[in-house]
Design brief:
With 335 residues, the protein is an alpha/beta fold. It has 2 domains: 175 residues, NAD(P)-binding Rossmann-like Domain (Rossmann fold, 3-Layer(aba) Sandwich), CATH 3.40.50; 135 residues, no CATH class. It is built from 15 helices and 8 strands. An 8-stranded mixed sheet has the order 3-2-1-4-5-6-7-8, sandwiched between helices. Strand 2, helix 2 and strand 3 form a beta-alpha-beta unit. Helix 9 crosses helix 10. The radius of gyration is 22 Å and the shape is globular. The relative contact order is 0.10. The structure holds NADPH dihydro-nicotinamide-adenine-dinucleotide phosphate and magnesium ion (2 copies). The site of one magnesium ion has 3 residues, from helix 8. Keywords: Amino-acid biosynthesis, Branched-chain amino acid biosynthesis, Isomerase, Magnesium, Metal-binding, NADP, Oxidoreductase. InterPro entries: 6-PGluconate_DH-like_C_sf, KARI, KARI_C, KARI_N, KARI_prok, NAD(P)-bd_dom_sf. Its EC number is 1.1.1.86.
Length: 335
């Protein structure tokens, strides 16, 4: 059995008196900065000039350039996009890190793949919420939280693990439960999940189902409802009560079809593809390709993004959602 930690299990107070600088005020930066401030932590924001800078200021945070914030901080939480993080770190954070400081992440990517190599005299910790930033903020406001992973890469002070737990608690995550991890485990699993199941897997599944139906002459509108719109309803049931609840709530016809056909669709070939993807995460090939595309100006990312944005599925979905005001994002904590 896994040991989960909750609020009552986090009793140390090594963060007391520390100034935490959030580098980046996007999805995670915005959520974590607000949650920690509401938990009584001294929070500042470090971000480049622009939309995020203005928003952090408007939200009442002392807001600086990354370098200025790094100078003032005891704890630097790196929440820029992963691909720019090592440049930001080298130019604007590393020069101002002092012995005893803490360097925090929400994804192990840069440290694990050695894009960032922190000095030996700082603690290097991770607090990775298992959910998007707007949900972390919304659930915090509602008195819950999103579960999180915590851990450390480097323990200079002897308290790195406790600090990571305290940070997670201040973010509201210990209300939902904390799980211990390592930078390697978090990075491998996070990349695997988003590529194979959560985003890559789900979008490919929806897209392929949509193609098969429309190529066979079925209406794109109906196909959209069938393979995309209903996805949320099924996911909600799985989220609330696992496969068992979903099957209980659906017809026997659908349950039988699901058992018999599903494993043929996601079969041996898909499993092998997932194993290959995991290997390329573990041996660093995916990270190398991703960083190379970034350094070349993201030609591949932008080409694929354009294809996705202009697909028939995207267009049909957009038209239909415009007629369904109830599905519009009504999340006022979203950044
Ligand atoms: P976002 O893209 O939402 O936000 C990035 C922030 O960094 C923005 O405020 C952006 O400002 C700022 N920024 C970009 N470039 C620079 C720069 N050169 N100098 C200073 N600031 C800059 O990122 P996420 O919140 O999605 O991701 C942050 C980290 O959290 C990543 O490590 C990610 O893997 C991790 N994570 C994210 C999750 C999520 O929910 N999205 C979930 C779990 C982990 P501007 O407005 O100017 O672009
Ligand atoms: Mg991720
Ligand atoms: Mg049933």
């Amino acid at each position: 059995t896994v040991e989960m930690l909750y609020d009552k299990d986090v009793t140390t107070n090594y963060m007391a008196g520390q100034t935490v600088a959030f580098m980046g005020y996007g999805s995670q930066g915005h959520a974590q900065a607000n949650n920690l401030r509401d938990s009584g932590v001294d929070v500042i924001v470090g971000v480049r000039q622009g939309k995020s800078f203005d928003k952090a200021k408007k939200d009442g945070f002392p807001t600086y350039s990354v370098a200025e914030a790094a100078k003032k901080a005891d704890w630097v939480q790196m929440l820029t996009p992963d691909e720019v993080m090592s440049d930001v770190y080298k130019e604007e954070v590393a020069p101002y890190l002092e012995a005893g400081n803490t360097l925090g992440f929400s994804h192990g990517f840069n440290v694990y793949y050695k894009e960032i190599v922190p000095p030996a005299d700082v603690d290097v910790v991770i607090m990775a919420p298992k959910g998007p930033g707007n949900l972390c903020r919304r659930t915090y406001m509602e008195g819950f939280g999103v579960p999180a992973l915590y851990g450390y890469y480097q323990d200079a002070s002897g308290h790195a693990e406790d600090k990571a737990k305290e940070f997670a608690k201040a973010n509201g995550a210990a209300r939902a439960g904390l799980l211990k991890t390592t930078f390697k485990e978090e990075t491998d699993e996070d990349l695997f999940g988003e590529q194979n199941v959560l985003m890559g897997g789900v979008t490919s599944l929806i897209e392929t189902g949509f193609e098969v139906l429309t190529e066979a002459g079925y209406s794109p509108q109906l196909a959209y409802f069938e393979v995309e719109h209903e996805m949320k309803l099924i996911c909600d049931l799985i989220y609330e009560g696992g496969f068992n609840k979903m099957y209980r709530d659906c017809s026997n016809t659908s349950e039988y079809g699901s058992y018999v056909v599903g494993p043929k669709v996601i079969g041996k070939e898909s499993k092998q593809a997932m194993k290959d993807a995991l290997k390329e995460i573990q041996n660093g090939k995916f990270a190398k390709d991703f960083m190379a595309d970034y350094r070349a100006g993201f030609p591949e990312l932008y080409r694929l993004r354009e294809r996705s944005e202009n697909s028939q599925l995207s267009q049909v979905g957009e038209e239909l959602r415009a007629r369904m005001p109830f599905v519009k994002e009504a999340d006022k904590y979203s950044n």
